[in-house]
Amino acid sequence: MQVLVYSTHPYDQKYLKVANQGKHELKFTPATLDEHTTGLAQGVPVVCCFVDDTLDAAVLQKLADGGIKLVALRCTGFNNVDLETAERLGVTVMRVTRYSPYSVAEFAVGLMLSLNRKIHRAFNRVREDNFLLDGLLGFDLHGKTVGVVGTGKIGFVLAGIMKGFGCALLGYDVYRNQACVDLGLRYVELNDLLAQSDIVSLHAPLMPATHHMINADTISHMKRGVMLINTSRGGLVDTKALIEALKEGQMGAVGMDVYEEEGHMYYHDLSNHVIADDVFARLLTFPNVIVTGHQAFFTQEALTMISETTIENISDFAAGRSNNNILRPEQAISPTTKEKE
pTM for the complete prediction? Predict the structure, then answer.
C-alpha cells in the first residue's frame, strides 16, 4: 500500500525502512499533519502519524475526502485523534499498543536521579571550574515512598526499578495490576498517594478523566517538597498550578518530558526563534525543574518495536485482517488494562 509518513525525522525513515522490507510504498514528509497539510495525502490510502499530528474532525474529514482509509499511529497515545469522527467516516485508526516499557521507565528514573543529586547543575558548574558542593545536597532514594500513578506496563517496570532502590511503593489506577501487587506495591486512592509519596511519577493515558489530574487541589494534598515526574502526557498536569506550587515551595522538584502545549514546539529546532509561550518560559527559570523534549521513548529497542508494529498494522489492514491495535471511540473514555501505557 502507499503510505504517507508525516512528521518524519531521519530516525523515522531509518527504522521504518528496515521494518518495511519493501512491503509497502513509503513516502516521507517532515510536515506535521494539520488542516493545511492534508493535501499532501491526496490519493494515498494510508497516513502514518505521530503524537503531535492533528487528527481532529476537520482534518479527518479532509483526509477521508482525499481517499484515506487508514490512519496508522506510530505511537501509543491517541488523545490527538477524534475517534468518533474517524468511525463515522469509515477511517480505521490503528496504533502501537506496546513498545519497550523500559525506555520510558528508565528515563523517568534518570530524571529522578538528576533532580535529586543536582547532576545537571553539577555538570554546568564543573565546566566553569566551580567545584563547590553548596546547593547540591540530595537525599537517599532508599527508604523513600514512590507513588506510581498508572500501573500499566511502564508503571510496572518503574515500580520494579524503584523497589531495587529500596523504596516503598504506592499505586493508583482504575485497574489493579497483580504483578505490581506481587512486587509489594500497595494501591491507595489518589489523594492518599499524593499525601504519602516523596516522589510521584505519572504513567497514565490522557483522556477527559485524567486531564489536569495534577492541579491546584491535588497539589495541595502533596507532601511539601515532593518531586513530580511526568513522562506520560503533558495534559495530565495543570502547568500554571504547577508553577504556583514551585514558587511557594510546595513542589520541591519537577521532571517533565512532556508539556501540555508542546505541539507547536516539540520535535522542531526553534533555537533561532523566540518562544512566545510565557508559561513554558517561566517553567524553565526554576533551578529545580528539568524539561526535556518528549524523548523518554527514544531508544533503539523502542524505535524498532514501534516501526515493526506500525508496518504489521498496515499489512494486516491491507490483508483485511483485524488485530488488537484497532482503536474504537469507547477507548477514548475508558481504556482496558491491555490498552494502557
Answer: 0.91
